[in-house]
Amino acid sequence: GGTPLKGDIKFSFQPQLVSSAAGLPKAPRRAITHTSRDPLVILSMPQGPFRTIAGVGRAEHPWCDANAVQDIEGVDELGTAVDYTLKSIEHGIENNVRDRYDVIIVGAGLSGCTIAERLSRELGKTCLVLERRAHIGGNCYDYVTEHGIRASKYGAHLFHTKHPRVWEYVKRFSEWIPFDHRVRGVVAREADNEKTLVAIPPTMDTVNALFGTNIKTEEELEAWYASERIFPANGADPANGEEAALTRVGPRLYEAIFKHYTKKQWDKYPEELDASVLMRLPCRTSTDDRYFNDPWQALPKRGYTRIFENMIGNDTNVDVRLETDFFEMKRLGTLPKHDLLVYTGQIDTYYAALGMPKLEYRSLRFEEEYIEDTGDDGLFFQEAMVVNYPGADVPFTRIVEYKHVPNQPEGRHERPGTLIAREYSSAEGEPYYPVPNPENRALYERYAELAAKEDGVAFVGRLASYKYFNMDEAILNALEVFDNFMETGVLDPKRAPAEFGTA
After folding, report:
1. Which helix (H) or strand (E) holds 107?
2. pTM (2 decimals)?
3. What residues have CB less than 8 Å from 136, skipping those under 6 apart?
4. Which of 37-46, 260-269, 393-402 has the lowest mean pLDDT?
5. Which of 12, 18, 87, 293 has the greatest number of C-beta atoms within 10 Å?
């Protein structure tokens, strides 16, 4: 997605400081040159991770105080162990597979592992978890690179939840440290088209920086939004994503931040998407620059993969077989006998033999670059973990610099070298996001009708439900599937996917 620059168009800007908190070292001012041949040339780099006086990865006061996580919480059974054995997990299906299981689970991501853990620990059920990838954890999988940086294979994952049940559940499998995710964006000012670094979602400071306003109170900003918003005629509901965005933020913020970013992300302009996609655009009337408002926001101290290792890695009731294709086993008739099947993959793939149309997904492509020499004046590439590029003149949607996060191995923030990942949206690759429009929704309903008639098969999770779940929603959905089994003996979701909040 996105329109590449033509010729050698250049811009430069002087980014805002990392923090205005008193007593903190200021990041060096730097210039960025952007050309079509050399997309991003860093002339000098920040000296330290994105932080405030409250700590690395924390928001300014009073916003950091709104996070219910203020210290380390949770339990990590594996602890500080570096060399350990996960007895339940093997590659391939050749060895140590039982003749019969109570449940076969397809997929070792959040949904599959949560259901396996609950069935085993609460009911003593035997589970075979089949995973086609070479690792557990699904898209949450992270690891420490050869350069000692904890990175995510499938893009940044930020845990946040409003559900007390989910927070109490995940604390059983990891120690968690507070993290207030804050995003910056490179956006053109209205007056002179110069690029500047602003908070996303837009805050009071964002509006002032982009449009030259001098808004000082929440009441003034709310009045500004009210003057900007455009509503459909005759009081009608927004018919598409563009109309929804205009009712939320008005045309100027929509053009500056949301319109072209949406096109790059979905390869569709907002007017081609459901209103629900942009109806939830956040409108901050304060200086709160946190990306999420949920009461619990944290990162697993030793990474996301450790959560899954603690969940099922040494459970004697659970066998996990990696690099194993469920459909191939089904075709060959080599699946062990079982009472129930939980399927967490793409629902249209399950019914591929019927020849129905495929559902549409968006994927992500990551262009990773390790930068060894960050110079004498700084150890980081950019000011924050995530910097968005919402303009049409840049082909990627954002750059992620993993080194900023506080759950890096001890001492890594102070050592040279950093890893960045430019993120491109794509129609090819691992399915990440269902494309929400009327055609796909209608097609999914046809698949859902077939799934409802499957005896002994539960379709669980974002791919099986054709619905994007945040991490906490995926866990809650799986927990409710287990609740339903406890109450009725049926492994099925208690709620329709549409009842979860994410568009």
Report:
1. none
2. 0.88
3. 89, 108, 113, 305, 308, 309, 312, 313, 320, 322
4. 37-46
5. 18
